Amino acid sequence: MAILVVAAHDGKTVRANVANAVAAAGQMGSDVTVLVAGSNCDEAAKSAAAIQGVAKVLQADDAAYANWLAEDIAPLVVKLAPNYSHVVMAADSVGKNIAPRVAALLDVAQVSEATQVVSPDTFVRPIYAGNAMATVQTADKVKVVTIRPTNFKAAAAGGSAAIEKIGGEGAKGLSSYVGAELSKSERPELTSAKIVVSGGRGLQSGENFKMLETLADKLGAGLGASRAAVDAGYVPNDYQVGQTGKVVAPDLYIAIGISGAIQHLAGMKDSKTIVAINKDEEAPIFQVADYGLVGDLFQIVPELTAAVEKK
Amino acid sequence: MKVLVAVKRVIDYNVKIRVKADNTGVETANVKMSMNPFDEIAVEEAIRMKEKGAATEVIAFSAGPAQCQETIRTALAMGADRGILVQADGELQPLAVAKLLKAVVDKEQPGLVIVGKQAIDDDSNQTGQMLAALLGWSQGTFANKLNVADGSVEVKREVDGGLENIKIKMPAVITTDLRLNEPRYASLPNIMKAKKKPIETLAPDALGVDVAPRLKTLKVEEPPKRKAGIKVKTVAELVDKLKNEAGVI
C-alpha cells in the first residue's frame, strides 16, 4: 500500500524536513504520495513534486487550510487515510500538533519521533529524553508516524511527480488564526544548519548573545540556546534545543556556557562534532564533547571569532 | 466553569534512568517519582484561572496504579479542589488515556481541559490532541499564554519559527509549554488540607474504555554512547582540530 506524507509549507515551498519525511516514508513502502494542503499552494505543491521518491502529489486548495489549523487539516487527512498504509509527518511543531489528532480520529496509536524504520510496522523511537531507545511495533491498519528529521537523510531534488488537485473539506469553525510573532533571522534555520552555535545561562544576558551572533555569522551557523537561556529571556523560545525544543544534528555544534543537562543533550547529542566551552570543567557537557575548552567564554568567544575564517 | 487537569506520575526529571538488563523497559523500582513537569504547569494555570474567577472548580485527573493518588494529592496541595483516579495497573498509552479522559469529560462537563504537552517518560506529545479529536473540540497546543474571554480562548503557541496566536472556541483542550507559567510550591498548610480533599477512584471498565496497549514494545535499549573527547588548551588548538582533524570548518 501507498504511504501518505503530510507536508507543511509556507505557501511557496514545502519545509526542508519534508524531504526527510519522504526518505523515511520510502523505507516504509515504495509508493509515496505527498499531501500539500493550503490556500493558493501551487508553488508548494510543485516543490513537493520535485522531491525524488515522490510518486504523486495531492494538492488540496482551500482557504480553510491557509494557516494549518489542526481542527481543519485533520479531517482532510482522515478522509484520505484509508487509502494508505501509513500517514507520515515530520515531528516539528506542525506534525506534533496535527498527527495525534489524525491518529485519534482513526482510532489508531501514533508512533512519535521515529528515529529508525526497522520494518513497515516496527520503529525505533527515543524515550526519556533519548536516554533509552524503544523498539515498538504497531498492528494498526493505518500507521500514523512522526519522524525525527535529523535521523533520515533528506531525499534529493530532481523528482517530477504528477500533481493531482483534490477538493478541501472547508473550515470546521472551531478555531481561527490571529497572527504570528516570528523571529526574523537571516541565519540558517536551526534544524537544518550545518553548524550551530548555542548559548546557555553562562552568557548572563540577552545582550551578551550578540557575541554569539557575530561568531555564528562568521561561521554561517544557526543560533540556538539552552532552556535556561530561553527561560531567562535572553532569546526567544524558538532558539531552544533539547528534549522539548528542537532536535539538531549539525556537522558542528558549539555549546557555549551550557552546562549540559540531559534535557539539553537530548536535542544535540547526535551532532557529528561537539565543542564545549565552559568555565566549569566538571560540567556534564564535556562528557559528550569531542573538543572541550575550559575557560571564560567572554575571553574565548571573541578570540575564536577572530580565529575562524569568514565563510 | 470547571477546569479539568490531567497529571501523570513519572520518574522524577532529576533521576538518571537505567534501562533494565533484560531490555524490557526502564527500571522504576525504588526510583523517585514525581508529577510530570508539564502537568505542574497545567495545574498552576488552572488554579490561576480559579483565583482570577474564570474557573469555579479545578479537578485533577490521573490514570495508572494506586500510587497516582500521590500525584493527585500534589495537585490538590497546589490548589485543585478534588481528584479523579482511573486505576489501572498495566501500561497506559496516550490513546487509552485520551479515551479515559473523554469518559470523565462526558461526566464532568468542564469548559477547559489543560494537560502537559508531553510527559517526560515516553515523550509522546499526543494525549491532549487525541482528547480534542475524540471530543470534537478545538485544541490549543504548546501554549505560552492563555486568555479566556467570551466563550473562547486566545492561545499564544510556541511554534518552530517563534510564536503563533490563535483563537479557539470553548470547550477546548489546552496543552502547556514551558513558558506558560512558573508552578508554585505547595505550602505545608495546603499539603495538610489536601489530605482531606476527596479523590474518586474509577475503573476503566466502569467507564467502558478498552485500555489495552496498541503499540507493542519489543525492546528498550541504551542509546549509543558518544566516545569521550579531549580537552584542548587554547583557541588556536581548537581551531586547528576543527579544521584539520574534524574537518568541519
Detailed description of the structure:
The complex is a heterodimer of chains A (311) and B (249). With 311 residues, chain A is an alpha/beta fold. Chain A folds into two domains: 2-166, HUPs (Rossmann fold), CATH 3.40.50.620; 190-307, Rossmann fold. Chain A is built from eight helices and 16 strands. Chain A has helices at residues 17-26, 42-49, 70-80, 93-106, 209-219, 227-231, 262-265, 297-307, and strands at residues 2-7, 32-38, 54-61, 84-90, 110-114, 116-119, 122-127, 132-138, 143-147, 162-166, 175-182, 195-199, 222-225, 252-256, 273-278, 291-294. Chain A has a seven-stranded parallel β-sheet, sandwiched between helices. The longest helix of chain A has 14 residues, at 93-106. Chain A starts with a strand and ends with a helix. The mean pLDDT of chain A is 96. The longest helix of chain B has 15 residues, at 37-51. Helices cover 27% and strands 31% of the residues of chain B. Chain B has 249 residues and is of the alpha/beta class. Chain B has helices spanning 37-51, 68-78, 94-108, 127-135, 188-194, 235-245; strands at residues 2-6, 9-11, 33-35, 57-64, 82-87, 112-116, 138-149, 152-159, 162-169, 172-176, 199-202, 215-221, 230-232. In chain B, a hairpin with a 2-residue loop joins strand 8 (152-159) and strand 9 (162-169). Chain B has a single domain (2-245), classed as HUPs (Rossmann fold, 3-Layer(aba) Sandwich). Chain B starts with a strand and ends with a helix. Chain B is globular. In chain B, the strands form two sheets. A nine-stranded mixed β-sheet of chain B has the order 9-8-7-10-6-1-4-5-11, sandwiched between helices. The mean pLDDT of chain B is 97. At the A-B interface, helix 3, helix 4, strand 5, strand 7 and strand 8 of A face helix 3, helix 4, strand 7, strand 8 and strand 9 of B. Strand 8 of chain A pairs antiparallel with strand 12 (215-221) of chain B, so a sheet runs across the interface.
